[in-house]
Amino acid sequence: MRMLKTLLLASFCVTYCFAQTESLTIGPADVLHVKVLEAPELEQSGRVTDAGTFPLILGGSVYVAGLTPAKAAEAIEHVLESGQYLLSPHVSVTIEQTTTQNVIVSGSVTNPGSYPVSTPRPVLDVLALAGGLNDFADRRITIERHETKERIEYFVSNKSAVALDGNSLLVYPGDTIFVPRAAIAYALGDVGKPGGYAMTTNDSKLSVLQLVSMAGGTLPTAVPAKARLIRKKADGSYVEFALPLSAMQKGKSSDMQLQADDIIYVPFSYFRSMALGVDSLVAAAASASIYRF
Fold first, then answer.
1. What is the CATH number of the domain that holds 141?
2. What is the pTM of this model?
C-alpha cells in the first residue's frame, strides 16, 4: 500500500512538475481541470468566471486569472491548507479549453486578425498564421506582452539564415504583434518610373543611387547635376538641398542614405530654368504611385 502511494505521488509529481514549466496563463472563461492527490473526490472541471476566479468544491473561490497552471495549483493548495481542509495537499491544474488566449496580428501583414495560440510559439510561426509580411511592411515589428504590456522591438530579416537563427523570440497567448508600414522615399522628375518606393530592403535603408536605380534611372533628357533633395524636418516643415547626383553616378561623390519621406527631384533639360517650389514637389509626392522595392 505504501509503495502504491509512492508510485501515485511520483506520477502526480510528473504531471505537477510539467505544469510548472508551462508558460500559458489562465484567463476568464477558460475551462480548468483540478485534481487533488489526497482527495480524489475533489477532482473537478469548471470555467473561470469573468472576475477571474475559480469556484472550488471546498474552500470557496480562488483568483487564478493571469496565473500559470502551476501557480494556480499553488494558490489552491494554499486555500485547502489554510482552510484546514487538507494537510499538505498536492494539486495539479490543467487548462482543458482556452477561449481568451489569442494573438492579435495587425498592420502590414497579408491577413491581419486574431489567431488562436494555445502555447508559446516562435514569432515567425505566428506571422505565418497571418500570411506573413505584405509587400509594404517594415521589418521592424513590435510585440506587446499581454500580461506586462512590455513592448519588444524585433527585426524580421529576409535572409533565411539570419531569420531562422534569430527565431528564438517567443510570442505568448494574448500578445499583440504590430507590423508598421515601411517608410517611403520618392524619386520625381525625369526618371524612368517616378513615384514613391517602400524602404523594404533587408536593413530597411535606401540610398540615393539605389532609389534612382529602382525608379528606372535618369533619362537622357535629365539634368542630374541640378538634382535636389527635399527632406521633412521633425516639425513637419521641409528643407531643400542641392544633390550632386551626377557626381554620385560618376563615382566622384559618395552615395548617401535617405530618410523616410525624402524626395529626390531630377529636373528635365527643357525645364532647366524653371524652379519648381518645395510645396509643388511635396504635393506631387503625396499623389505619386507607391512601388515595392
1. 3.10.560.10
2. 0.61
